[in-house]
TrEMBL record, chain A:
UniProt name for this protein: (Fe-S)-binding protein
Membrane-spanning ranges: none
Domain named Cysteine-rich: residues: 5-84, 122-216
Pfam families (UniProt xref): CCG (PF02754)
Source species: Prosthecobacter algae
Automatic annotation (TrEMBL), chain B:
Compositionally skewed regions (Polar residues) per UniProt: 441-455
Region (Disordered): 436-455
SUPFAM superfamilies, sorted: 4Fe-4S ferredoxins, NagB/RpiA/CoA transferase-like
InterPro entries: 4Fe4S_Fe-S-bd (IPR017896), 4Fe4S_Fe_S_CS (IPR017900), FTHF_cligase-like_sf (IPR024185), Helical_ferredxn (IPR009051), LUD_dom (IPR003741), LutB/LldF (IPR004452), LutB_C (IPR024569), NagB/RpiA_transferase-like (IPR037171)
Pfam families found in the cross-reference section: Fer4_8, LUD_dom, LutB_C
Database matches in Gene3D superfamilies: Alpha-helical ferredoxin, NagB/RpiA/CoA transferase-like
Protein name: Lactate utilization protein B
Record-annotated 4Fe-4S ferredoxin-type domain positions: 303-368
Keywords, ordered alphabetically: 4Fe-4S, Electron transport, Iron, Iron-sulfur, Metal-binding, Repeat, Transport
Domain LUD as annotated: residue spans: 67-265
Domain Lactate utilization protein B C-terminal: 386-451
């Protein structure tokens, strides 16, 4: 079984360490991982802004490059949700083969232990698209048995302590282009999110969505640089401690 | 106050007072947590939501039949039934009834439908005094402002501000901010109006097709006070307020108060079936664009809304931008999908006032897919040409670039080299408050290609 790894555009360019950690983690678990050459973006930014038609080509590219895989995995809940929903709208069977990383590890690979160690106090930001969109956990609005797939995976990491939060699953205010077009509200939401984590003593904020972390990390770097963001793949792969200094220059 | 053009501009204004914005957020979050506690006490909460959703779905699929059944039964009970195609017709009907009775003063219990139809200004122009009797509604009426929230119309005001309004209009001592004293002052003032009103108007929370009766929910009993004292009771309802059977009421009444304010039930759930001897009772059934929404399959489920405002209280954007930041009288997530039905251009920014976090959908007692409808409206609104040119250009450029690997790599290379400068200049809405990440020297793909070459 070969896995198709989908690394979204912004992770490719700005957070290569997240892609590396995902790749490392999956191969270490014994999967054959392939990264097709073409797709860069799932088309979500366009759709989110009301230009789904303009972004539709991204889905075409994606479907062409990834159709051959049994499972497609991506370390980005919101991109996965967008892919799933768009494929579903086209009645494509691929819709059921796309997984967010935690979802894949939890539901398909059924991982029950990880060799990772991360002796820190960590706040889990349950990104909305992952939580309510993909059902990675139980949303606080609903009266359903409580569970969280990312939290279960984090609990397998030695030394890691999850901090409680006052608002366990409130949105961070990123919201794709919302963060730019509605920056006042977006920033206010983000500040409240990081404050919740900081006041509970988090040293790191993690999430299954790098986009939320880009927003929260951007605020932290101005306000509380001692608190860092780490994508969940980095913690689960045990690469989170390093500052992910790539060893070679690009050409 | 002139209505600001876009939600983001209005939200910017609201956020200029961060302490107040934080207070607003916390006040509404408290309501949300009360709702959570109350919902948790009902073990079958999720089944109730599902039942409510299905009853509404079913009702909407046979709406005309149920409305007719309701109208027939109501008429048989001795209620005068009127149909209004739009707000103007609704207002004319209300005015006609008042005229026939020579009524000069109307006491109104809270009704968002009359807000929608602009009934107050219409009647006032005809020389009729209109007194809103819901406490919150009365406060904003005295201020000559619309409600900022559909359940708690004056939730945006602090106690001291209410004290100021009362000082100015009701003659209470300056600086009064004791809630009990303020409420007492309002009560005395309203009592006088109840006793001297010529007619009473109420909204309708649920109209029961099977019986021809209807239910009005209030916390202050003001609907009862008005309806029981005045010789004429006019009830106004949108066509979507209908439920098929009396037995369904239990589902909705249990959901409504818990979702709205975190109370087990509203203090008064008043059931009206027929006029009391000597009283005249009217019901006005209003369409005003609802059948148009019903015909739009993407948005028809929005008509299931029972106006509990749980989606407002849970919405992180509403909490941090306030009710007046939306261009429609129903603000918040549900308003953002109802408003474009009325006027796409005028309310073009409302569906964008969301991060699509989905909390509204998850909290909604009748399971309306609010955030999915918001996303649909975004497509419809831009397709209709109501997007700023620069946004359109930016999105088309992005779409073009991300599909062309060479161009994308070049763009990324450029971007990664300019982030330190952007962080320094802080010229764009992102870097004004947030740093862009330190640029890595290598992309994932470059790393991955090296891995493959090593093998
Ligand atoms: S959309 Fe749902 S949550 Fe919002 S007011 Fe209507 S019923 Fe309540």
């Amino acid at each position: 079984m070969t896995l198709g790894l989908f690394i979204p555009c912004y992770i490719d360019q700005l957070y290569p360490q997240v892609g590396q950690a995902t790749y490392t983690l999956l191969t270490r678990l014994g999967h054959q991982v392939e990264v097709p050459e073409k797709p860069a973006c799932c088309g979500q930014p366009m759709s989110n802004s009301g230009f789904a038609k303009a972004g539709a080509g991204c889905l075409t590219d994606f479907a062409r490059e990834y159709a051959r895989f049994d499972h497609i995995v991506s370390p980005s809940g919101s991109c996965v949700l967008h892919l799933k929903e768009s494929l579903e709208a086209q009645h494509s069977p691929m819709a059921h083969r796309v997984y967010e990383l935690c979802e894949f590890l939890h539901d398909i690979a059924k991982v029950d232990s990880l060799p990772a160690r991360f002796p820190h106090r960590v706040g889990l930001h349950q990104s909305c698209h992952g939580l309510r969109g993909l059902g990675l956990g139980s949303p606080s609005e609903c009266r359903v048995p409580a569970f969280s797939k990312p939290a279960r995976l984090l609990q397998m990491v030695a030394g890691l302590e999850l901090v409680p939060l006052d608002r366990c699953d409130e949105c961070c205010g990123f919201g794709g282009t919302f963060s730019v077009f509605e920056s006042d509200v977006s920033v206010s939401m983000g500040r409240d999110r990081i404050q919740d984590h900081i006041s509970h003593g988090a040293e790191f904020i993690t999430s299954a969505d790098m986009s939320c972390l880009m927003h929260l990390g951007g605020l932290l770097s101005r306000q509380a640089p001692q608190v860092k963001v780490r994508h969940i793949a980095e913690i689960l792969a045990g690469t989170a401690e390093s500052e992910a200094e790539p060893s070679l220059n690009d050409g | 106050m002139a209505q600001p053009l876009t939600h983001s501009a209005a939200a910017h204004e609201f956020q200029r007072d961060p302490a107040r914005a934080a207070w607003h957020d916390q006040t509404l979050w408290m309501v949300r947590t009360k709702r959570d506690r109350m919902a948790a006490r009902v073990p079958e909460w999720e089944q109730l939501r599902e039942a409510a959703s299905q009853i509404k779905e079913h009702t909407l699929s046979k709406l005309a039949d149920y409305l007719e059944q309701f109208a027939d039964n109501a008429a048989a009970n001795g209620i005068h039934v009127h149909w209004a195609a739009d707000g103007d017709e609704h207002n004319r009907i209300v005015h006609g009834i008042l005229q026939r009775h020579g009524a000069r003063k109307l006491v109104k219990s809270k009704s968002m439908l009359t807000e929608e139809c602009h009934l107050n200004p219409h009647l006032e122009k005809q020389g009729i005094e209109v007194i809103d009797t819901d406490l919150g509604e009365r406060i904003v009426q005295l201020q000559e402002m619309p409600p900022s929230h559909i359940v708690m119309p004056a939730i945006h005001l602090k106690r001291a501000e209410v004290g100021e309004v009362f000082h100015e209009h009701l003659g209470t001592p300056a600086g009064l901010d004791d809630p009990q004293q303020l409420t007492e002052a309002a009560r005395q003032h309203l009592r006088n109006h109840f006793l001297t009103a010529d007619a009473a108007l109420t909204g309708v929370n649920f109209a029961v097709a099977e019986t021809g009766g209807f239910v009005v929910c209030t916390n202050e009993g003001n609907a009862d006070m008005g309806a029981h004292l005045a010789p004429v009771h006019i009830a106004c309802m949108g066509i979507e307020k209908i439920i098929p059977r009396q037995a369904h009421l239990g589902v909705f009444l249990r959901l409504l108060a818990r979702s709205a304010t975190g109370q087990p039930s509203t203090v008064f759930s008043s059931h009206f079936l027929k006029p009391r001897p000597g009283q005249e009772m009217h019901i006005i059934i209003v369409d005003n664009g609802r059948s148009r929404q019903l015909a739009r399959s993407d948005y028809r489920k929005s008509l299931a809304c029972i106006r509990c405002a749980a989606c407002f209280n849970t919405c992180p954007v509403y909490r941090r931008s306030g009710g007046y930041s939306y261009s429609y009288f129903i603000s918040g997530p549900i308003g953002s999908i109802l408003a474009p039905n009325v006027d796409k251009a005028a309310h073009a920014s409302m569906p964008f006032a969301s991060t699509l976090c989905g909390s509204c959908t998850a909290v909604c007692p009748v399971k309306i897919d609010i955030h999915a409808q918001l996303l649909k409206w975004r497509q419809d609104i831009t397709a209709a040409g109501h997007a700023p040119w620069w946004k359109k250009a930016a999105m088309h450029t992005t779409a073009f670039v991300v599909r062309r690997p060479a161009l994308f790599r070049l763009g990324g290379w450029f971007m990664r080299r300019t982030t330190p400068l952007l962080n320094l200049l802080r010229l764009d809405p992102w870097t004004q408050s947030r740093d862009l990440p330190p640029a890595p020297t290598q992309t994932f793909r470059q790393w991955h290609n090296q891995q493959s070459n090593k093998k």
